[in-house]
Amino acid sequence: MAGGLAGSAIGMAIAGYNGVAALAEGPEHLRNVIILAALPMSRVFYGFILLIIVITIVVPKLAAMPDPGSSGFAVAACGLIAAFAFGFSGIYQGSVCASGISSLIMTKGRILTNSIMLAVFVELIAVLGLVFTIMALSILGLM
Amino acid sequence: MIISPESLAVLGGAIALGGGLAGSSIGIGTAGSSGVNTLAEEPGQLRNVIVLASLPMTQTFYGLIILILILTTVIPKLSAMPDAGGSGFAVFGCGIIAALAEAFSGAYQGSVCASGISMLPKTKGRILTNSMMLAVFVELIGVLGLVFTIMALSMLGLF
Predict the structure, then answer these.
(1) How far, in Å, CA of A65 to CA of A26, rounded?
(2) For the segment A8-56, what is each residue's pLDDT rounded down to a tens digit?
(3) Are A1 and A48 in contact (CB under 8 A)?
(4) A132 touches chain B (CB under 8 A)
(5) Which of A45, A85, A101, B145 registers the highest number of CB atoms within 10 A of its CB?
(6) Is this prediction's pTM over 0.90?
């Protein structure tokens, strides 16, 4: 969850810097800038999904494990997977969106679709991180 | 005991996948942001840009392979070892091999792909094959990291 928050915050800040610069040149692009700058926000929700899963499903099963202490440590390690995925994908999706925003003026907004497509590739890594964390928890018998 | 051998081994696998995810994110992000600039100049190169920008994604799957191997094959063998605690720490060390290999090869494959993408308009797409060849060299380091991690695990008798 913290990795998701950190990644989203840094990504949106990077995209936002360029957004302000682009708006100074062409204020009519406000809608496109807001769309691109908001893309890295989804990491927060992925992190939140994972937090809810751990609290509602994993924690009740933990007490039934033969060695709850070491299983708890394993859950912490699985959380690390998600933190890496959300942290780094948020930051670098921000830089893709920032490039897109700075090209908006030159292309009169036509770059929006293409830059969303390239940003979705980075999004995919975050989704993979979420799925693989859930998979690791289920291999450990905690899901 | 909180840090049991099994949980240290899980941590090793988790770090391996985390390194793969970090490397893929950095690589795709670097290649993608130079891809957006190229598409702003020449929208016709979309297909080539997508091919080059998605190359660093493979590092995630190498990390995943290590995690699955550790969870399904290594951990059941761990309790049969004479010194389970020491073996668990060794598996953690092997995870760090894979994490470093995938993170660095993903990040720098992204910069090879970014250079290739920025040359696409000038060469009218002819640079695609050459830049893929050069990117495969960096990919090789990721594959070597995967293979050598498995080799180290099998030398320890855990695989």
Answers:
(1) 60
(2) 666 666 766 666 666 667 777 788 888 888 888 888 888 888 888 888 8
(3) yes
(4) yes
(5) A85
(6) no
